Amino acid sequence: MTQEFDMSTYLSTLKVMGRFHNVGLPDYDLPAMKAQDFAPNGSYIGASHIGNHPEMVAMLELASKQNIRSWIETIPISPEGCAKAVTGVKENKVRYRYTLTGFDEAFGKRY
């Protein structure tokens, strides 16, 4: 599929300073690109290898089997909570991952 992907056309659809981020490693090389493909909208391209689907399933099965849980710090999604989260990030005080909670209470149910 990647060998048939029209990267030039796709990049032209990105908003100004938009980003194309390839997750995982493609089965085939990405198509050739030219610097001119990025010029009209100042787009970026990036990639990361965070694993493919079988690796993800194996990781989740291991986490389930070993009862591995994520470490998070929950903060209410309120003006005070959001301020605390932003301040914590700016001051590099986040020990684990901040998770904002209470969306429905703050904004009402979406459905």
Please name the defining characteristics of this protein.
111 residues; single chain; 2 domains; two-stranded parallel ribbon; alpha/beta
In a few lines, what is going on in this structure?
The chain has helices at residues 7-12, 53-65, 79-90, 103-107; strands at 19-23, 44-48, 72-76, 97-101. The protein is of the alpha/beta class and 111 residues long.
Descriptive report:
With 111 residues, this protein is an alpha/beta fold. The chain folds into two domains: 2-60, no CATH class; 70-107, no CATH class. Helix content is 32%, strand content 18%. The protein is built from four helices and four strands, in the order αββαβαβα. It has helices at 7-12, 53-65, 79-90, 103-107; strands at 19-23, 44-48, 72-76, 97-101. It has a two-stranded parallel sheet. Strands 3-4 form a two-stranded parallel sheet. The longest helix has 13 residues, at 53-65. The protein is extended. The protein starts with 6 loop residues before the first helix and ends with a helix.
Break the fold down into its secondary structure elements and pairings.
Layout: H1 7-12, E1 19-23, E2 44-48, H2 53-65, E3 72-76, H3 79-90, E4 97-101, H4 103-107
Parallel strand pairs: 1-2, 3-4
